[in-house]
Amino acid sequence: MTERYARLKIFPFADFSKLKEKKVTVVGVGGLGATCAEIMTRCGVGRLTIFDFDKLEEANLNRLIYRTHQVGMFKVDALREYLLAANSDVELLTYPNDVTDGKGYDALLKEARESDLVLGCVDSFHVRIFLNSLCVRLKVPLIDGGASLDGINGSVHSIIPGKTPCYRCNKPALKDDSTTDLKKAGDGACHFTSLPTTMGIIASLQCQEALKYLLGFGNVAPYILYYGLEGKMQRYNWKRDPKCPVCGGVK
Ligand SMILES: [Zn+2]
Q1: Which residues contact 177 (CB under 8 A, 6 or more apart)?
Q2: From ligand 1's centre to the CA of 22, what distance in Å?
Q3: What is the Å distance from ligand 1's center to 119 Cα?
Q4: Is 182 a residue whose pLDDT tops 60?
């Protein structure tokens, strides 16, 4: 008889039993976030908090995790069923709220402060910029993932406040309150293509970097780009901008 973490216990680079002391918040549980939540749950994270105000639509079903009978449910409620069935050891908190406003914002502020790490899994540019500023201000690491609008490329940005570049360091033209073309086109699942393959790859990369940070093994990559057409992945060791308006003064 083996127990559920037996294969993690023999991983030679880190002590996975320490993960049960860690708290992780996932913002957005679409194609990226649902997969990130599953990975963290199966690895045995202590507490997982998930945020998403969307309800599941039929057009979301080409990606992973969600099931047909769950269409119409809040994604966080649908995911709760799935995650607790996968591993009921995990303390799971769910918020069907918009993190940029009102109750959702207050909840995120509280949960992010208590978290060891935030996984940013949003499909909206302005929320990504918002999370970057919030996590830098709270000094909570943010591992942000995203896929290109054509569905085939993706990126993972690991923002460890005071250590690695934030999202703004390398994109000085951005404004924190900017509404982008993406925003104007409308946020959400149905406006852009989305492949379960790219989403699975990027979510897995986010979790790999998250586990490296949480368990203290390997070397966290500040920025990874995945090029699907070429089957290529590249790490960029960007430097912090000392004059960055978001993280410039953070030590
Ligand atoms: Zn910065």
Answers
A1: 126
A2: 26
A3: 18
A4: no
